[in-house]
Design brief:
Low-confidence stretches: 8-25
Mean pLDDT: 88
Helix content: 25-40%
Oligomer: single chain
Length: about 180
Amino acid sequence: MSRVWWTPVLGIIVALGLTAQTLAGPQAVCSNPPKPVSLLQGNVVNVVDGDTIDVRTISGVKTRIRLLGIDTPEVHESEKLNRDVRQSGRSKAAIQAMGRLAWEYTRTRLDAKTVGLEFDVQRRDRYSRTLAYIWLADGTLFNMVIMRDGYAQVMTIPPNVKYASLFLACQREAREKSRGLWGHT
């Protein structure tokens, strides 16, 4: 069951000269990595969609966070939603319905929670959102969990590749076991 459920995101990886096999390697396993020692702490104050949240840091600054390494279906009207419709052949309504499932998954796990932010090479994207991996209080990497449970796809954009092989392994596992949105195709 290797169907893509909303957009061929792996094309981003291939277009950059990387293959899924190169990133995942034969030994890649979907298993939580060790939690980094130093993380910026904050509280989730809003879940925008499946891969975007608002966090108020310890210093009191509210910042929009785009979760690194993952992509979820769109909920809101946007050029990306239109592009996903064209690329996937699915209707806007179908993509937005999957987007609402991903949003609900993220909301129930992150809303009003204290989280740790881990950064990669780039700190901001072209929309001025902060790019981060989200760590839960129990030491779980949320970006990995949403991938493993099938509510996100891999979206690796170098140079932010720290967990690329892990995320590919988790996506493969979710797809093979028809978890989350992979079971809706």
